[in-house]
Amino acid sequence: MTSEIVRHNVTRRWSDAVVHNGTAYFVEVPEDPTLPPAEQFRQVFEQVDRTLARVGSDRTRLLQVTIYLPNPEDLATFNELWDAWIPAGHAPSRACLHTQLAAPGYRVELILTAAT
Amino acid sequence: MTSEIVRHNVTRRWSDAVVHNGTAYFVEVPEDPTLPPAEQFRQVFEQVDRTLARVGSDRTRLLQVTIYLPNPEDLATFNELWDAWIPAGHAPSRACLHTQLAAPGYRVELILTAAT
Amino acid sequence: MTSEIVRHNVTRRWSDAVVHNGTAYFVEVPEDPTLPPAEQFRQVFEQVDRTLARVGSDRTRLLQVTIYLPNPEDLATFNELWDAWIPAGHAPSRACLHTQLAAPGYRVELILTAAT
User: Fold this and answer.
1) Alpha-carbon gap, residue C59 to C45, rounded angstroms
2) Banded model confidence at residue A3, pLDDT cuts 50, 70, 90
3) Which residues contact A79 (CB under 8 A, 6 or more apart)?
4) pLDDT, tens only, B14-48
5) What is the CATH architecture of A22-115?
6) Are B65 and B110 in contact (CB under 8 A)?
7) Residues of C numbered 25-44 whose beta carbons fall under 8 angstroms of chain B's beta carbons: which are they?
8) pLDDT tens across A98-113, in order?
9) What is the pTM of this model?
């Protein structure tokens, strides 16, 4: 039995989200990399909320999030906003690494898995 | 049909493990980052065993492991202990990268997926 | 109910691919790290095609790909070959990071998830 794959906003290079077997896979970077770090983090959380809504999920159904912060000094700010954004009792599995992103200016990249 | 999500040890910031649709997602760093590297690796494998038991899985049911070793000189030691820890015939898909972790002192961070 | 896990080419340290619950997990680095970057990228895409065939999948059924490029100057070349390799309308979720790989000489490592 082949499960259907649903792709959202497919471009030549990537899809904004891919859903298969009740699980959504997606990646987010802030739309505006010229914003200061805290604004980039707020923006990327709004984008995650929009993508979750698009795939029939929401913030309470995140399974795993890998956080790439290229600037270690951003960690405290990121965590403060993250803690306010995650609904109590619904935190996902989470890893946080410091590594260089492929595009300049971005202060965060998120790889996310959610239940639809 | 909505599959249930089960979260283990939920804190404000993360869950120690999240189970959905027969798959467990979790992240481990050693409990004691003051230990020497080999002891950190032994410790983190014990923690993985405990988390696997908590989600109704075990070492033979790992699907994918991503290994972050911030210190490249630790690789040989890590691999020696890994090879002894992985049950013959049950090795997961595995990637190993060198990147800076978000917390100082830790010699390893693991992102794991297992079948429950 | 326990879903079966199928492992392909199991070694002491890793499996080339692991399939569970309709999802395949695998990691690829080019077989020949002495090749120039573009040739390494072509080679790794061929390896991905072979692994996908082995698990009963193909290039149109990739769900998520995380790309590690240790040399940022390789990004344009990688993207050009990627864009030609991905079938139109079937692009996966994709993240691209610059980080040091565990083995010297390799210009790319891919972590992939596909529907079988």
Assistant:
1) 10
2) confident
3) B13
4) 999 999 999 999 999 999 999 999 999 999 999 99
5) 2-Layer Sandwich (3.30)
6) yes
7) 25-27
8) 999 998 899 999 999 9
9) 0.97
* % of chain A exceeding 70 in pLDDT: 98
Q: How large is the average pLDDT for residues C2-11?
A: 91
Calculate the average pLDDT of chain A.
96
Beta partners for residue C62, in sequence order: C114
Which residues in chain A have their CB less than 8 angstroms from residue C113's CB?
A: 25
Q: Give me the CATH topology for the region C5-115.
A: 60s Ribosomal Protein L30; Chain: A; (3.30.1330)
Q: How far is CA C8 from the centre of its chain?
A: 15
Give the best residue of C19, C27, C52 to mutate against chain B (max B CB count within 10 A): C27
Name the CA dihedral angle for C57, C58, C60, C63, rounded to a multiple of 10 degrees: 50
Q: Which chains touch C (3 or more CB pairs under 8 A)?
A: A, B
Query: Measured between CB atoms, which of A3, A14, A99 is closest to C98?
Result: A99
Alpha carbons C49 and B16: distance in angstroms, whole number: 35
Whether B90 and chain C come into contact, CB under 8 Å, resolves to yes
B93 touches chain C (CB under 8 A): yes
> Residue C3 pLDDT > 90, yes or no?
no
Q: Locate the domains of chain A by residue range.
A: 22-115
CB contacts of C20 in chain A (<8 Å) are none
List subunits contacting chain A, requiring 3 or more Cβ pairs under 8 Å. B, C
Structure tokens at C63: 């769900």
Q: What ipTM is given for this predicted complex?
A: 0.95
Q: Does A100 touch chain C (CB under 8 A)?
A: yes
